[in-house]
Amino acid sequence: TRPTRPKPNVNRPAGREFVNKAFEVDKATIQKIKNNQKPNEPKDTINVQDFDDLIPHIGGFGRYQKILFLLMIPYAYFLVFVYFTQIFITLVPEEHWCAVPELAHLSVEERVKLAIPIKNNVHSKCSVYDVDFNEQIALNDTEDKSKWKEKPCSNGWEYSRAELPYSTITTDLNWVCDNDTLPTIAQSVFFIGAICGGLLLGWIADRYGRVPSLMVANTIGAVAGIATAFTNDFWSFTACRFFVGFAFDNCFTIMYILGEKVLNRILKCEPLIDLFAVLEYVGPKYRTFIANMSIAVFFGSAACAIPWIAYYVSDWKLLSIYTSAPLLLALFTPFVVPESARWLVSKNKIDRALIIIKKFERINGKTIKPEIYQAFVDSCARSQSESDSVNYSIIDLFKKPRLRKITCLLILFYMAISLVFDGYVRNIESIGLSTFIAFTVASATELPASVILTLTLDRWGRRWLGLGTMFLCGVCSVIASFLPTGTITIVLIVTGRFFVNFSYNIGMQYCAEILPTVVRAQGVAFIHIMGYVASILSPVVVYLSTIHESLPLWILGFVGIFGGSLALFLPETLGKDLPQTLDDGETFGVDQNFFDFPCIDRQRKSLDEVQSQPSTSKK
């Protein structure tokens, strides 16, 4: 008889044997079956190398995954509220003029005609005639104004309610004329907050889990958003936007950082970006569909709704509260969303991971053999030991010449996409429609862009689609900048937004596929952060319309064309074995030609295979 082995401790340090106590009996049963097998009897091979190998056994897209997919809806709305509300609380009507208290008894049209100078065929926004209007009216001398002096506005401004039916913080605090840069600065600070929030919440996600990090992100966003409604000066408003930026992206996606020290976390930059916890539990073949459809349907519908929520509320303070308070619902996340099984495994909390997997098994109506569970546990122990033995950082991407070039191209490519996308989101006034209608029409392009992307990405590849969509977006912008406002301009700008939506969805997937597995998480996160850096500039680009109304479209157009052209110098990933090591990343794509096109190459390969088959005589 074999001596009884001591029960292994599930809390042993990484690298030692890790056996879950709940499966000790199952392990004995497995050993008994093995002992009873004949020497020459083939044994079934159980291949469970990682969590993805376990997903087919619990169901790639079963009932529980569908429930989680629907639970993404409120978080998609949270992202829209955090991102887009700032646009509608800082709007300023195109028509505004100096307030003249002594002419308050006149109608708006009479006041503007009498007191406001005309420059370039439009009434001035920042100057007023420096005369005694009551005296001029008494003398009936109001026609010849050529000798009247002008002065800057000194009594505030009046704003047209025909364009914007409610007041904003911009109109309440008169952030126009000499102060018109203040909303731009505040919105740029928002993205600085997003960078800081990604790093802080990443540390929380690594130490305490993704669900706690998600709760903290939404809570910070809710508190700062509600506090925004009570701000009454630039500095307090900007501080609130900084902390609302903490929740941006992190309220829907989870950015977490591995590492023990702050310096190491910044140098290694190891966030992984997951579309909440849902993609992790979905089979690989469903992930492209789920990722794109969640953005198209949930994010797109929320983006179409936000302008009309603002229009209906018609108060910037109430809008801030109404769009921030719902984020507190994220406090109920632990009751409806499971923790990341991968994070639990990385922290040697296999027991909790198995509890979650068993829940999937039960709700999806599946039955998993004990051998599969045991193989998964053993694989987790091996992986933990291997991951502890080798450490890579973002710096490794810049040590090899070709990999360094690819990484730099990816960074510039994604920065261009981020800048153009956010620029299009903010430059809605250039469409020439009502702000509310224009924003809705532009946001509605999310759905067709994501649907077409889902149908074409695995057919035409990433490289040419990245080039084509960014290039066409840039061309639409440049052409629209030279045309007067009208139907053609509207069509061009909306089409440009459609193409940049397309490009944005390509960007992250392309980056994740090109970078080697050993540094993929760190690299993707670093590129994502660089996208935030580019987004800091987008409010500035839109502000340049005060210099020339077409200048933002020129810049967005040329950045789009430049960014798209960078994709041509990147290797194609469709149908290729993705690089695993740094050496693989250095040599990845060296055998590809500049004009390779996946769809044509696939057809040519199929034709060659048919022609190479030996002909058979007919019977």
Automatic annotation (TrEMBL):
Keyword tags: Membrane, Transmembrane, Transmembrane helix
Coiled-coil parts of chain: none
Entries under Pfam families matching the protein: Sugar_tr (PF00083)
Subcellular compartments: Membrane
Membrane topology field: Multi-pass membrane protein
Highest taxon in the source lineage: Eukaryota
Transmembrane regions: 67-89, 185-204, 211-230, 236-258, 289-313, 319-337, 406-425, 431-457, 464-483, 489-512, 524-545, 551-570
Stated name of the protein: Carcinine transporter
